[in-house]
Amino acid sequence: MREHELVIIGGGPAGLAAAIAAKQSGVDDILIIEREKELGGILNQCIHNGFGLHTFQEELTGPEYAGRYVEQVRALQIPFLTNTMAVHIDKDKTVTLLNREQGLVQIKTKALILAMGCRERPRGALNIPGYRPAGIYSAGTAQRLVNIEGFLPGREVVILGSGDIGLIMARRMTLEGAKVKAVAELMPYSGGLKRNIVQCLEDFDIPLLLSHTVVDIKGKERVEAVVLAQVDESGTPIAGTEEEYSCDTLLLSCGLLPENELSREMGVEINPVTGGPVVNESLETSLEGVFACGNVLHVHDLVDYVSGEAKKAGQQAAVYLQGKQEADEKQQAAAKGKRILVTAADGVRYTVPNSIDPAKMEDKLIVRFRVGKIYKGCYVSVYLDDKRLLHRKRPVMAPGEMEEIILEKQKLQALLQESAYQNGAKLTVRIEED
User: Does domain 122-254 have CATH number 3.40.50.2300?
Assistant: First the structure.
């Protein structure tokens, strides 16, 4: 049994940023666990630009962005294990690892940061009829084949789902000489960033078919064609709207799922909307000393937001390890009584964090959320019970783009000092027309 003060599961942008922040905050005994052979996570296969505008104020490719964090990890001499799989985590924060060189290893840690990222929703979760021929890939798998392995998955392509990876792969496949026939999207709006719709589809004259889905896949040995049909408001295909597209490849870009199998096994409470852990203002999960950040917490649209969130997780893990949190059970119970529950309502799907302790929050706390449909000229409002705390107009809000609000500690505490809020309160984020 080995011991470390802080173990970080995941060596992608979230895990690396968390490790650097923890080290700079005074934690010396850190270990990063990464299942791939290189640090950097999914960014290693994202060779397009557009990363780093917020973090480094310049435009970088995915490998360049990851490389800057890897360089810092090496410069700070933070230990890491690659080609190593975390197979189990106990409630007492004992991590069981597996790799070729050391076999099965157990590590006891005082604090843990979950930064496992996310995975794509597979075909089996989409209920697409038809045979299972060759030529059906997730967009991320196709991206790896093209950008890292050097293989072109197909020559005539249809893409189902307009997530950012699918949009980027529409452009990538076109640049490699393939013909992208169409991108079909079940919803009446795209799930990707507006800039990707423009740069990856409109600039290459690739049609985006909203409110469409795949109703049949033709071909037994290899994909020969797919049949697309319009869907109604409930997502049911409309008879008579079917159209066949000849192709040899179908790429699926139908959403991302946080990788939380390990989190569930160890007893972390999971948010049913995000699929990630329920966290407080410190990004601490329902288990003391266990923190979460990045796409394992909720799926982000920009890696810069992932790094910023992970930096905070690393800093808060350091605070926890340095004993600045209340250790006495009575103090903990009192702190729980002062907690403010953060809830989503009226068009807001979820919020992160899910609860706030005003005494522990920073001077300014970022609350991130996503909306359930496209809104134009509406307001984001925040209520403390029945009193409006914030009211901000947004010209456009869409499900594919993450939104955020900033809560000021001073204003929140001033309201809480009023007698009506002495016994706990609820903070609600909602969309309003006026």
Answer: no
With pLDDT > 70 as the criterion, what percentage of the chain qualifies?
95
Q: What single-letter DSSP state applies at residue 265?
A: H
Distance CA 359, CA 95 (A): 32
The pLDDT tens digits for 156-172 are: 999 999 989 999 999 99
**Secondary structure letter of residue 370 according to DSSP:** E
**What residue segments make up the domains of the chain, in order of their start?**
1-119+256-325, 122-254, 335-434
Model confidence pLDDT, tens digit, residues 362-388: 899 999 999 999 999 999 999 988 888
CATH class name, domain 335-434: mainly beta
Integer angstrom CA distances of residue 394 from 57, 335, 398, 408: 24, 35, 11, 19
20 CB-near residues (< 8 Å, 6+ apart): 69, 72, 73, 76, 78, 311, 314
φ and ψ at residue 183, rounded to 5 degrees:
-115, 115
CA distance 429 to 379: 10
Q: State the pTM of this model.
A: 0.92
Q: Are 255 and 121 in contact (CB under 8 A)?
A: yes
Architecture of the domain defined by 1-119+256-325: 3-Layer(bba) Sandwich (3.50)
